[in-house]
Amino acid sequence: MPSFLAYPLEMIPYVLVTLLIAFTIHEWAHALVALAFGDDTAKNQGRLSLNPLVHIDLLGMLMILIAGFGWAKPTPVNRFKLKKRRLGSVLVSLAGPISNLLLAIVGVGLYALFLNYSFFTYGSITETFLMIFVELNLVLFVFNLIPIPPLDGYQILVEFLPMSARVKLEPVERYAMLIFLIIALTPISNFTIQPIFDTVIPFVFKIILSIFGLTPF
Q: Are 15 and 136 in contact (CB under 8 A)?
C-alpha cells in the first residue's frame, strides 16, 4: 500500500464510488431543501442535480484519499431568500448530514437483505462495498454536524446565537478553511474530532443495526 494514501489501495475503488454517491446526495439535499424554502440560487446554478460532476471538488476528493477527509463543492444558499429564514436555514444545513444518515441506513438495510437471502458471502465485493458505504456515510453524517466553520453544524449553531455573538464570529469565518485544516490535520483532532467519532459513530451504528435486528459487523 502506498504510504501517502489514507486507505489501502484495494479499498480505493469502493471509497471513490461511495464518495461520489455520498457527496452528490449530500449537496443535492441542501439544494432541494433550499428550493423548498424559496431559495432557487442552487437550482439556477445547476446544483439541483444528481450528476456527480456538478458537485465534486477534485481537490476535496484527493484529500479524502490522502488525508482521510475532504469536501465537495459547497451548495450556494442565499439565506435572505429563505421563507421562515431561521427554520429554513437550519433545515437546509441539516439536509446534507441527514441525507448521509439515510444512506447509511439504506446500506445497512441492503446488508441485512442480502445476508438474509444469501446474496453475498463474507469478504465478497458486495459485502466490502456495503461496509465501506455505511462507514463513510456515518462519518460524513457526524463530521458535518461538528460546529466548526465551514461545516453544516457551525451554520446550525450560528442560527441559535444572538446577533452580538454572530458579529463577533464573522472575523473567524474568514479563516474557516484554515481553522478546519488545522483541526483536521494536526494532533488537535485527537482531542476534538476523534473523541466525537469514537463516541457518536458507534452509538448511531448500533441504533441502525438494532432496527434491522443485526449484530455489529
A: yes
Can you tell me the distance from the alpha carbon of 67 to that of 60, in angstroms, rounded to the nearest whole number? 10
End-to-end Cα, the chain, rounded Å: 24
Count CB atoms within 10 A of the CB of residue 70: 20
Cis peptide before 76 (omega within 30 of 0): no
pLDDT, tens digit, 9 for 90 and up, residues 112-157 = 998 887 777 777 899 999 999 999 999 999 999 999 888 999 999 9
Task: Give this prediction's pTM.
Answer: 0.91
**Rounded distance, CA 45 to CA 25, Å?**
16
Confidence of residue 1 (pLDDT cuts 50, 70, 90): very low
Active site residue 173: no
Three-state secondary structure call for residue 83: coil
Beta strand extents in 97-176 (DSSP E only):
none
pLDDT of residue 75: 96
- Which member of 10, 27, 159, 173 is catalytic? 27
